[in-house]
Amino acid sequence: MYRFLLSRQWVLVTLLALVLIPVMIELGFWQLHRHEHRVAQNSLIADNLEADPVPAEQLTKPGHTVPRAEYWRRVTATGTYDTAHEVVVRRRTNGDDQVGFHVLTPLVLDDGKVLLVNRGWVASSGDQKAFPKVPAPPQGKVTITGRLMADETSGASGIKDLKGLPDRQVMLINSAQQAELIGKQVLGGYAELTAPEPPSGKPEPIGAPDHDSIGPHMAYAIQWWLFCAGVPVGWVVLVRRELRERRERAAADAPSQEPASAAV
Question: Which neighbouring-strand residues pair with 69?
Fold first, then answer.
């Protein structure tokens, strides 16, 4: 009665089931790894935000690539803002998903090196080619605290580094690019300003990264594994149903053959 399993239809069904099982297992582990990555990142963010701030030059230097382990580390720096070389970063959103600019101002340190400081978000005036209204930073020597971030690149950020932009506008925050424009040594990466906050609330400070949510990846992993477990169960159910239907058809055909046997 199980010879029907050798038919083309059932061979294809069986092969599909055999393919789906390892695919679903792999998808489950993929979601599990995403969950583990998110948990590890949340832990890293929390630890770095809670750590005592250290001088920026202890963690970075000109040409340095900030490693992931030091993302969001709180750093301090003392210097003077160089508004002559201030630029704005296009197509950035605030907490309300409004599109505007980030304000990137060089902070010239006592030793002449420069730390790029992202002072926050400002709204667009509506004219993308015009430099937005940017509140001036404090004058004279200041001490700032910020979250250390790595240089942005097109590959890592997914942002296309457009050319031919209006004057003093950029797409990416990149210390190497700014070093060419400023003509000074620029520390690798940049700092997202957290203190002192601007008295007017403008530029709008950049909020801390979310490190409480872990997302649905673990639930998705469990779902894929449940789907995987359901494949062989479903296959067995289909086989048993096919077998039952074949037996019922055979039983229904049996009485029609009795009169012919009696006549003989």
Answer: none
Residue-range definition of the domain harbouring residue 224: 2-40+217-247
Residues 66 and 35 in one domain: no
Same domain? 79 vs 156 = yes
Residue 259, exposed/middle/buried by CB under 10 A (0-12, 13-18, 19+)? exposed
How far apart are the C-alpha atoms of 51 and 57, rounded to whole Å?
Answer: 16
Judge if 16 and 138 occupy the same domain: no
Same-domain pairing of 127 and 20 = no
Same domain, 88 and 172: yes
pLDDT tens profile 3-25: 888 888 989 999 999 999 999 99
Cβ–Cβ under 8 Å, residues 173 and 118: yes
Residues 111 and 18 in one domain: no
Give exposure, 25-64, as e/b (b: 16+ Cβ within 10 Å): eebbeebbebbeebeebbebbeebeeeebeebbebbeeeb
pLDDT tens profile 77-104: 999 999 999 999 999 999 888 999 999 9
- Residues whose CB is less than 8 angstroms from the CB of residue 20 and which lie 6 or more positions away in sequence, other chains included: 228, 231
